[in-house]
Amino acid sequence: MLSSKDRLEQLSDEAKRTTLILEKAERDFIDRLIKEGKESGIKSLISKMINIYRNLMIYGWTFPGEYYYGISRVAFVNVELINLLVQNTPKEAWYDTGKKMGDILKVSMDATLGVDASKQENWEEVFKRLCVQGFGFFSLKDKYLLLKNPFLNNFLLWEGIIEGLFGVKVEAKTSVSPLVFEIKPDV
């Protein structure tokens, strides 16, 4: 059993205390997020911010609102603008457009993360990256790929994206979020 002194020494090796001085407007903003239930506390908010910074390599940020992640230029864009592009794409092209998007994402994941998205052992890392980039929350359950809160609700487009990115054949089981795709066995 560790003594109090030993535990304190062990803790000081693992965690360091940091003081953060915030402007009044910044603190008011954080307090409002906590009060509205959007954040559970300042520590979790700062941890989340650091995680996003680390995962997006946001230190490559260039104002206004864009950054480069490996070979990909990423920009914040309104989902409504993307939906407008999709709506003005002929319906018969949605799957093929998604497939091309998935192919591009696959190259981006390989170049930036150094992982082959077609290997299922890498999917968890790819899921995390897609989530951080705003694509939605992916999870795998047996032979089903689930997608919650996708930035696009077009299941045909997602079918193509998933097949292009992960190199598998899927069949959509739902047409609205949460989207469920059955992974088909190799033939």
Set down the secondary structure blueprint:
Layout: H1 4-14, H2 24-35, H3 42-56, E1 61-62, E2 66-69, E3 72-75, H4 79-87, H5 94-113, H6 123-132, E4 137-141, E5 144-148, H7 155-166, E6 169-172, E7 179-184
Antiparallel strand pairs: 1-2, 2-3, 4-5, 5-7, 6-7
Helix pairs in contact: 5-7
Describe this structure in words.
Helix content is 48%, strand content 16%. The model has no long low-confidence stretch (mean pLDDT 86). It has helices at residues 4-14, 24-35, 42-56, 79-87, 94-113, 123-132, 155-166; strands spanning 61-62, 66-69, 72-75, 137-141, 144-148, 169-172, 179-184. It folds into two domains: 19-75; 79-184, no CATH class. Strand 6 and strand 7 form a beta hairpin. Strands 4-5-7-6 form a four-stranded antiparallel sheet. A three-stranded antiparallel sheet has the order 1-2-3, with no helix packed on it. Helix 5 packs parallel to helix 7 (155-166). With 187 residues, the protein is of the alpha+beta class.
What general outline do the C-alpha atoms trace? globular
Can you give the mean pLDDT?
Answer: 86
Helices and strands, in N-to-C order? HHHEEEHHHEEHEE
Given as residue ranges, the uncertain stretches (5+ residues, pLDDT < 50) are none
Secondary structural class? alpha+beta
**Biggest pleated-sheet summary:** 4 strands, antiparallel
**Number of helices in the DSSP assignment:** 7
Side by side, the strands of the main sheet go: 4-5-7-6
